[in-house]
């Protein structure tokens, strides 16, 4: 059983900031050390990446200035996202992705979704993820 070392103030602040950006929760346990594993060591299939994955830009059909980007932090968090794809267009659209779709893109899959209807039209957005390199999971 591995005993976790206490974090100093700087390490805690960094972990808290990264967790906030990733949409994670930090649990602070009292007492004298414990037998629990550090957060994020459960092995979720994302490998041992050295940092968040690169952002993924979706391909927008019949595009006239829209841009659909899932940030590396959103991919790493793996939760549902709603993207405003306005970009340089003069009107917005949104694309909603479920947590399963975000995880699929993060892990190298392809997902196509229709954007919201705006100004009497919509767009289809296709995201093609890039899987981590090799079994170790380096992004």
Question: What class would the helix/strand composition place it in?
Answer: alpha+beta
Mean pLDDT: 77
Please indicate the count of domains: 2
User: Rg from C-alpha positions?
Assistant: 18 Å
Share in β-strands? 15-25%
State the share of residues found in helices, binned by percent: 10-25%
Mass-distribution shape: elongated
Q: Any low-confidence stretches, pLDDT <50, length ≥5?
A: 24-48, 134-139
What does the secondary structure layout of this molecule look like, with pairings?
Blueprint: H1 9-22, E1 56-60, E2 68-70, H2 72-77, E3 81-84, E4 94-97, H3 99-106, E5 110-114, E6 124-128
Antiparallel strand pairs: 1-2, 1-6, 3-4, 5-6
3D architecture notes:
This protein folds into 2 domains: 1-42, no CATH class; 56-128, no CATH class. The protein is built from 3 helices and 6 strands, in the order αββαββαββ. The chain has helices at 9-22, 72-77, 99-106, and strands spanning 56-60, 68-70, 81-84, 94-97, 110-114, 124-128. The strands form 2 sheets. A 4-stranded antiparallel β-sheet has the order 2-1-6-5. Strands 3-4 form a two-stranded antiparallel ribbon. A hairpin with a 7-residue loop joins strand 1 (56-60) and strand 2 (68-70). The longest helix has 14 residues, at 9-22. The chain starts with 8 loop residues before the first helix and ends in an 11-residue tail after the last strand.
Keywords:
139 residues; alpha+beta; two-stranded antiparallel sheet; 3 helices
Brief write-up:
By secondary structure, the protein is α+β, with helices and mostly antiparallel strands.
